[in-house]
UniProtKB/TrEMBL annotation:
UniProt-listed PROSITE patterns: FAD_PCMH
Superkingdom, natural source: Bacteria
UniProt name for this protein: LLM class flavin-dependent oxidoreductase
UniProt keyword Mitochondrion, yes or no: no
Native organism: Cellulomonas edaphi
Pfam families: Bac_luciferase, FAD_binding_4
Source taxonomy: Bacteria, Bacillati, Actinomycetota, Actinomycetes, Micrococcales
Transmembrane segments: none
Length: 745
């Protein structure tokens, strides 16, 4: 097969001389400086004149910023594949996805045996390499649950724990010349890496034919396999002559990665700065003339996992590098949210607002649902779906202080609140933002933002002064006090219904250290505990904000209540005076208080989201936790009809903002209730929740999945205004699928 359509890449093959290690590293840096894509090193662990290749790869990766690193090729008989898998994944994570694995079955067996490895016949060495690939890929596959059992006679793991997962899909290239090794390349490898000096005329074509045949027999497309080639030094008299020499290798033998061997920086500079662009252009010209399709190719197994209803071939070219499909490595890390397991047909990992806009335009042409994800932590589970499109804002995570005097901060929608706190705390600033650091900026800020500084600061959205929004037509607008003011009003409380917020400008509060108190109560007398806690909260200074979480009794412990309380300041005397009365409201099982930065209260863990069984969430806002409210919640906990019940303090500064200032209009209540349970218990939870109808005067939209939540989330005047705004900015109802506004069309 002549041209496989791969993008051309260029690299170097540097000798790992131990006599002058810094010179070796210098040539690697030069390879990057002169525009090359890859730097490689041979691996002969038994050669005392050479540096250890893996140590060198690690050092070079840390000494460069862009270039890919690989062994050329690693000696698998002396590098146990299970350890090599972890080493490669670790280096890939540390380097930001810049590792490739070139592997070999071993050649100099006397030297290998002298280093302690058992001798193998050529056939055994191929079998061992085959097993090694299974072990390596299996340990990288953290999407598959359970321990790994793989390998066989020479390399076997039995019950090994998978992970870590690399930062990107690490390619495995094999150095191969003989038929069995070429067959292994076709069946399992991502690339073929021979050296031109070891090949006789015609052997490239013969090797490609054998690889292609093996690939087809394994159900693979031969275009999945990159063809690399180690070249000797420069022999041509000019760049044009060199292009003429290499062009047939690309067009007739399918080579797409050319690796220059040698330790001459002048040759490296010529190769990277002159030959590489000239050869790329020459190949592009020939491909255009021949109509050769170029680009990556997905395997048949991956194609079979595509979702019906999505035209994958129509994905815009600008998004080709940021989409994840069900058949891709890494799909497991992006398919689900914290609570909800999802199976989207396509995840767009947008890099910027322009990508989000392009994704919206594409999603509108597809007849599938689409969702938007910032952090993916929301318990309502609106950030994934089954068979649809997810626009993931995780890469839009910048945190920037625009004006330190005003404490004006710009936050990307994909930033996690724990990272925001970590940036702002050293500057004496904080933004009240939920109670868990892995929550994303976007989802929380457009819904409200009930946080642990809430009674002194207000809702998160109360301090948003501007927002960048991608609209339904794919346009990007700025909403602030001077332009699109109606959109800014709607974004603050109903942002998901009118567009996709990609960034906000928000005013932080002057906050240094705070006092964090955690108290665990025996909640056997749940109703009395609730009433006492709520009364104490309402009677406390506004510097105090508390969240109380109730957990049903289990076999070995009573029902418990966990209070997380923050005093917004470092006045420990005042904090103690406010906190001590909380120790008298019920039996205390544990207590702890400490002075720490707000970033210590809200830390981002960046945990992987695996989802779970379908859940249901009910919520409500109440003016007071009356005995009637407390009794319903207590009965709910006692009956085990909720996995968790939480009561959040939301009064104080929250209620100082006028009700018509934002689309979040609930400015009279002091507490926010929520309960979460499994889908099977939904009917029981709903029956219990209806008993609160007279007390609940509103709903926080992120904490409720009830069928009646629209009218409770937005009072009549607010809903009318919101529908009018949506009619202007989203006339076709592209957004708001989770809570349709029923806008007249």
């Amino acid at each position: 097969m002549p041209d496989y359509g791969h993008a051309l890449t260029f690299g170097t093959f540097v000798t790992p001389q131990a006599a002058d290690p810094q010179a070796v590293v210098g040539l690697a840096r030069a390879s990057e400086r002169h525009g090359l894509d890859l730097v490689t090193f041979q691996d002969h662990p038994y050669q005392p004149a050479f540096l250890d290749t893996w140590t060198l790869l690690s050092w070079v990766a840390a000494s460069t910023t862009r270039i890919q690193v690989a062994g050329n090729v690693l000696n698998v008989p002396l590098r146990p594949p299970a350890v090599l898998a972890k080493a490669a994944a670790s280096l890939d994570l540390l380097s930001g996805g810049r590792v490739a694995l070139g592997l070999g079955s071993g050649a100099f067996w006397d030297a290998i045996v002298a280093m302690g490895a058992p001798r193998m016949t050529p056939g055994q060495a191929v079998t061992a390499l085959d097993e090694a690939i299974d072990v390596i890929r299996g340990l990288w596959d953290t999407d598959t649950r359970g321990v790994l059992r793989a390998g066989g006679q020479f390399h076997a793991v039995d019950g090994a724990k998978r992970g870590p997962s690399p930062a990107h899909d690490i390619p495995i290239w094999l150095g191969a010349y003989k038929p069995r090794m070429l067959g292994l390349v076709g069946r399992k490898a991502d690339g073929w890496l021979p050296s031109l000096s070891y090949l006789q005329p015609g052997q490239l074509a013969e090797g490609n034919a054998r690889i292609d045949e093996a690939a087809r027999e394994a159900g693979r497309d031969p275009r999945e396999i990159r063809r690399l080639l180690n070249l000797g030094g420069i022999t041509a008299s000019s760049i044009d002559a060199w292009v003429d020499e290499l062009l047939p290798l690309a067009l007739e033998d399918g080579v797409s990665t050319f690796i220059l061997a040698g330790d001459d920086e002048r040759a490296i500079a010529l190769f990277g700065e002159e030959l590489a662009p000239a050869l790329r252009e020459a190949v592009a010209v020939e491909r255009r003339a021949a109509g050769t399709a170029a680009g990556s190719v997905r395997s048949a197994a991956a194609l079979a996992k595509r979702a019906a209803g999505i035209d994958y071939e129509a994905v815009p070219a600008s998004l080709a590098d940021v989409v994840v499909e069900p058949g891709d490595r890494g799909y497991g890390a992006v398919r689900s949210t914290y609570v909800w397991a999802g199976s989207p047909g396509l995840v767009v990992q947008a890099r910027d607002a322009a990508d989000v806009a392009e994704a919206v335009r594409f999603a509108r042409t597809q007849h599938v649902p689409f969702a938007v994800r910032s952090g993916g932590h929301g318990i309502a589970g609106r950030a994934t779906n089954d068979g649809g499109i997810v626009i993931d804002l995780g890469a839009l995570d910048a945190v920037e202080v625009l004006d330190a005097d005003r404490r004006l901060v710009r936050l990307g929608a994909g930033a996690h609140w724990g990272d925001v706190a970590a940036t702002l705390s050293p500057l004496g600033m904080a933004i009240s933002s939920g109670d868990y650091g892995d929550v994303g900026v976007g989802g929380l800020v457009v819904a409200g933002g009930q946080g642990l500084l809430g009674r002194s600061y207000g809702l998160t959205l109360d301090h948003v002064v501007a927002a960048d929004v991608v609209l339904a037509d794919g346009s990007i607008v700025r909403a602030d006090a001077e332009q699109h003011t109606d959109l800014l009003w709607a974004v603050r409380g109903a942002g998901a219904a009118v567009g996709i917020v990609t960034a906000v400008e928000i005013e932080a509060a002057p906050v240094g250290d705070v006092v964090l108190a955690t108290v665990v109560y025996d909640a056997t007398d749940t109703a009395d505990l609730l009433v006492g806690w709520a009364a104490q909260v309402e009677g406390s200074p506004l510097e105090l904000t508390s969240f109380l979480t109730l957990v049903p009794a289990s076999r070995d412990q009573p029902a418990i209540a966990h209070a997380m309380t923050v005093w917004a300041g470092d006045d420990t005397d005042a904090a103690i005076a406010a906190l001590e009365p909380f120790l008298a409201i019920g039996p205390v099982l544990q207590q702890r208080a400490s002075v720490l930065p707000y970033s210590g209260v809200l830390q981002a863990h960046h945990s992987r989201h695996e989802g779970g069984a379908p859940a249901t969430v009910r919520g409500g806002l109440v003016v007071h936790v009356t005995p009637a409210v407390a009794r319903v919640l207590a009965d709910l906990v006692a009956a085990g009809e909720a996995q968790m019940v939480q009561v959040r303090a939301v009064g104080g500064a929250v209620n100082r903002t006028p009700a018509d200032a934002t689309a979040y209009a609930h400015r009279t209540q002091n507490f926010s209730l929520s309960a979460i349970t499994g889908e099977r218990a939904r009917a029981a939870l709903d029956r219990r929740w209806r008993l609160l109808s007279d007390e609940i005067t509103g709903v926080y939209r992120s904490f409720d999945l009830g069928d009646d939540r629209l009218a409770r989330a937005y009072p009549p005047a607010t809903l009318d205004r919101l529908r009018a705004v949506a009619a202007v900015y989203d006339p076709e109802g592209v957004f708001g699928h989770d809570l349709p506004l029923d806008v007249p069309r």
